[in-house]
Structures are given as C-alpha cells and as structure tokens.
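Incident review: delayed structure delivery

Summary: a single-chain prediction request sat in the queue longer than the usual turnaround. Root cause was a stuck worker, restarted by the on-call engineer. No data loss occurred. The affected request and its eventual output are reproduced below so the record is complete for anyone auditing the incident later.

Affected input:
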Amino acid sequence: MTFQKQALFWTTGLVIFVLLVYVLRPVLLPFVAGMALAYALDPLADRMERFGMSRLVATSLILVLFALVFILVLVALVPVMAHQLGQFAERMPEYGTKLQEIGRDISQSWLQIGWVRDLLGMGGTEGSSPIANSDLVGKAASWFGQLLQSLLSGGLALVNLVALLTVTPVVAFYLLNDWDRMIARIDDWLPREHAETIRSLASQIDDALAGFVRGQGLVCLTLGIFYAAGLSLVGLNFGLMIGFGAGMISFIPYVGSIVGFLISIGVGAVQFWPDYIMIGAVAVVFFIGQFLEGNILQPNLVGGHIGLHPVWLMFALFAFGYLFGFVGMLIAVPLAASVGVLARFALKQYLDSRLYTGGGDTPPS
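Output delivered after worker restart:
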C-alpha cells in the first residue's frame, strides 16, 4: 500500500470517528466515564491478579469497594454540597450588590487621597467612583445565579446524572474484566510492518495518560479536601462547596486555583468586611494549597509523566468542550496526550528525513 493510500485510509478513519463522537455525544457520557474508570483501576486489578486472584474476582472486589466508598461520599457530602450550591445560587445577586457597595466604599476612600485624585486628573473637584455609577457586578452576579439555578433544575441534567450512576458501573465492570483481552486483540489487529512503532507510541501515550488520570486525579482530590477543610475551618460561607469545587477543576492549569480564589475572596469580603484579617485568612488557604501543589503533590504524584504543555491542555479542554460538551472535556485529555505524542514522533521523523537535511540521511551537525 502506497503512502498516499495509507494516509487516506487513516484520515478517513479519523473523520468517521470524529463524526460518530459528534453525532452520539448525547449518549456517550456514561460509556466514556466507564472506560475512564476501567482504565484508572486496571493497574490495581493487574496487581491483584499477580497475587493469585482471578480477573473476575479482582474486578468484582474492586468495583464493590469503589461503589461503597462512592456511596459513602454521596451520602455524606452530596446533600450538603447540593444545599450549599442552591443557597449560593439564590444569594448571588445579593452578593453582587454588596460587592459593588464595598468597591464603592474602597474607591471613595482612595479618592480622598490627594495624589490619587491628581493621578486620575480630578484635581480638587469632587467626583464619584466609576464603580458607584455601574451595576455591572450586580448584573453579572445575578446572571451567574440564574445560570446555576437553571443547571440545578434542568431535567436533562437529572437524566444524565441517573444514566451516569446506573450505566457507568456496568460499563466499567465489563471493560475492566476484559481489559487485557481487549488490548491483546487490538494488538493482533496492528499492521505487522509497523506493529513495534505503534506499540512504542501507545506506550508513550499510556505513560502520559497514566500520569494525568491517576496522578492528577489524586492531586485534584487532595486539593479539594484541603481547600474544603481550610475554608470551612476559617468559617467561610459555602466553604465546603467552593473548596471542593476548586480542587476538582484543578486539572485545568491555574483555572481551579484562580476561580476558587476569586469566588472565595468575593464571598469572604461580603461576609467578613471590614475584617481584613479574616479575608486574608481565606487567601492564605489558597496560597498554602498552591505551595503544596507545586512543591509536594505535583512532583510526587505526577512528576514529568504528563508531557502536555498547559496552554495545549487548556486549548484542548475548551475546544473539545465547545464541540462535544461535557463528553468532549472527558476525551480532551486522552486525545491531547495522543496528539502530543504523535506530533513529537512526526517531528523526529521530519528531522531525520531528507526534507529537513536537504538530501543527506542524517541532520547536519
């Protein structure tokens, strides 16, 4: 088969795959989640097999234990989280109005300073802060609150949640039980001429995914617990919801910490103003969390396995999320890791080719 025919074959396969994902995206969520769960738990099942346990027994035991832990978390946290989220959505317009008032008070106090007035060109005239004449913060908070309420009351979200909780464990059980057999069967289908190269690329992709799915998953869970506990100890309203949510979205570089920090400071300002010490305590929780993530959690749990640049990861998450919704965000990381490995392989092939060297077999020194 010529190179052109091979390129046409694989390009056609990729286009068909993307179209299928786009068409079937409304029903893919529990299946993609089940596959991700099976992939994450496969090393544990392999380890239990090495101790003499059958694959079926290992799979059953792992998923039963996982289900028990999951149910305990649901019973303990979900009612509290749902209650806090509902209250937070209802009080968003009120919080926006109070933040606007606080901003007006701060700006008015600064405008009493002579050099600030001179810097703004106000001279000796009396003026008011732009914040005092704008209700942008209040409108934004009201819109965000309405968005949260619509998400909480949406029937489609409830249907997706039920499907996720019922179908995902079944999918994960069958995939985890048959994981090694599926990998062996796929390996038998590889073109013999390129089998070793494909295996090497698949191993690199697996290494990148393992670092993210398992390592970064533990980082997010640890940060979520730390932020939730820290903000709750400080006494911040909705601290459990804000902290745990900030930790769970920390897989997007910088987004989790920034969003959690801004929401916490906003809620803290409304709740504690003008107690700067308590507002500072809220900020300290996030500063400590960032120190732990950068110096302890990331180096020990993730290390250098991901191989994904933060900008490329954020682009993939937003792009696939826009195209395919929440399912797109789930498959964004595996696809981004795969594309990254394939791009590095293609670059290496290019640097070793005559296209780069200009006729020689090896690049010039």
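Verification: Residues 130-134, 151-156 have pLDDT under 50 and may be disordered.
Action items: add queue-age alerting; document worker restart procedure.
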